[in-house]
Specification:
The complex is a heterodimer of chains A (109) and B (111). Chain A is mainly β and 109 residues long. Chain A contains no helices and eleven strands. The chains are: A mainly beta (109), B mainly beta (111).
């Protein structure tokens, strides 16, 4: 069983839609939870970082962590064509990051 | 202007050749990492280093080597023993809170 499982998509939505991206993890010892955005042929860019259960909001982005269910989500409100990218969840334990395989999102104008 | 730089952007390797990918950071981070990214497989850890002059193998270290002589630099050598080197290589460094920041990547292709 992989440490982190991510819905692979691809996901295609119209502009303005609410997007939900999800990951599950297997080890309750994981401490930190991150979402990265990666445009084609570029390095991943850190979007959100949290270490506790609950919601963390930053503009149009909300990261949600449910430690009891071992489930993390990223919500994007009012999605824009510029949000089209691959989104990677990442979970940290003992200075090592475990990545999901990524969800490719396309926002159609 | 702090960040992580990787060079070259594209690299071509001939059969039997060793090639070295450069990674430099001016974020004053102690820890640095090398990942390999293949389509549909996410990021896989090759090597990591928590401090200067020390490094550990990741999940797919075979066919790769690293050095960490300076805090700012963590070069990766892809040796001739790596039989399938074509991939996108990403270098990262991390804060003590374990947040990793990535460079722009190097795409390695085999001639």
């Amino acid at each position: 069983q992989k440490e982190v499982e991510q819905d692979p998509g691809p996901l295609s939505v119209p502009e303005g839609a609410i997007v939900s991206l999800n990951c599950t993890y297997s080890n309750s010892a994981f401490q930190y939870f991150m979402w990265y955005r990666q445009y084609s042929r570029k390095g991943p860019e850190l979007l959100m970082y949290t270490y506790s259960s609950g919601n963390k909001e930053d503009g149009r982005f909300t990261a949600q962590v449910d430690k009891s269910s071992k489930y993390i989500s990223l919500f994007i409100r009012d999605s824009q064509p510029s949000d089209s990218a691959t989104y990677l969840c990442a979970i940290s334990r003992a200075n090592n990051l475990f990545f999901g395989t990524g969800t490719r999102l396309t926002v159609i104008p | 202007d702090g960040g992580i730089t990787q060079s070259p952007k594209y690299l071509f390797r001939k059969e039997g050749q060793n090639v070295t990918l450069s990674c430099e950071q001016n974020l004053n981070h102690d820890a640095m990492y090398w990942y390999r990214q293949d389509p549909g497989q996410g990021l896989r850890l090759i090597y990591y280093s928590q401090i200067v002059n020390d490094f550990q193998k990741g999940d797919i270290a075979e066919g790769y080597s690293v050095s960490r002589e300076k805090k700012e630099s963590f070069p990766l050598t892809v040796t001739s023993a790596q039989k399938n080197p074509t991939a996108f290589y990403l270098c990262a460094s991390s804060t003590p809170q374990e947040t990793q920041y990535f460079g722009p990547g190097t795409r390695l292709l085999v001639l």
